[in-house]
Amino acid sequence: MRRRLFATTLALVLFAASAAQAQGLTKIAENVYSYVGVKDDSPKSSYAANAGIVIGTDGVLVIDTLSTAKEGKRLLKDIRAITKKPIKYVVTTHAHFDHALGSSVFTGLGATLVGHELNRAYLAKNGENMLKKILTFGLTPQDVAGTRIVLPSLTFTERLTIRMGGETIELIHLTPSHTPGSTLVYLPRQKVLFAGDVLFTDFHPFMGEGDIPGWVKALDFIEGMDVTAIIPGHGPLSAKKDVAEMRDYILFFDAKAKELAPTAKDAASLAAELKQLLPARSQGAGMIQYNLMIKYLPAKK
Ligand SMILES: [Zn+2]
Description:
This protein has about 300 residues and is an alpha/beta fold. It has a domain at about 30-240: Ribonuclease Z/Hydroxyacylglutathione hydrolase-like (Metallo-beta-lactamase, Chain A), CATH 3.60.15.10. About 40% of the residues lie in helices and about 20% in strands. It has helices at about 1-25, 70-80, 95-100, 105, 115-135, 140-145, 210-225, 240-260, 265-275, 285-295; strands at about 25-30, 30-35, 50-55, 60-65, 85-90, 110-115, 155, 160-165, 165-170, 185, 190-200, 230-235. The strands form two sheets. The protein has a seven-stranded mixed beta sheet with strand order 1-2-3-4-5-6-7. A five-stranded mixed beta sheet has the order 8-9-10-11-12, with helices on one face. The longest helix is centred in the first third of the chain and has 22 residues, at about 1-25. It is globular. The N and C termini lie far apart (about 65 Å). Zinc ion (ZN) binds near residues 96, 206 and 233.
């Protein structure tokens, strides 16, 4: 009897999980929903970037906005399947296009765009160029139609706490890491952390603009946090073991790339060599080579 009850409960849980997946956003904790473990990692699906929401009594806070206006609208549709409350705030974890260029969809609804001062500066300097450049990353003009660069109107430099309808959202900037302005979004009541691209789980990370010592510091900080669920920038719902693996990954990549770059023939051959040494993760061939071209072998493209 107990076993049947267990089986029924399990079936219900699995059904609920698949129903949540079908909606797009998965319930992570009370009032917190997110994309996690998106399977489609194509350019048209924001390279499987995660994004999420916190729902307060009087409104919604969105964390990251995907890569284009079209993708931002997909997120908005998935949010509207869960709540009709007004969207009050949009927070971007960093200024890379797959996390930030859907923002105009939400500011167009009257939401306040919140971001680190360095993310604002990055977008102000590179935003228009980034918008042109994404056409070389596999997106068509139709995919990016309607996408506009919007700059955060509310900025901070170290920490910012947003209190919205009974929920507390803490924005934490420690040091340059994945990008200069990469920000952790922490929900202390739920013990949930949106790590942005400070954490990639099961995906090869983009390291081209990374500050490795700062990145290690940020990962050490996360390991010391009171968290029970971590949403990475790309990949499935994660835990502290994934944070430790990420630190091992970037330290190993950095050391090996520096060791082998001086004698490497070109980025492609070094990428093939590194791929043999690194753990198997998604987006390997392209991302390893891209990191090498930008950060370690700029003269040997
Ligand atoms: Zn990124």
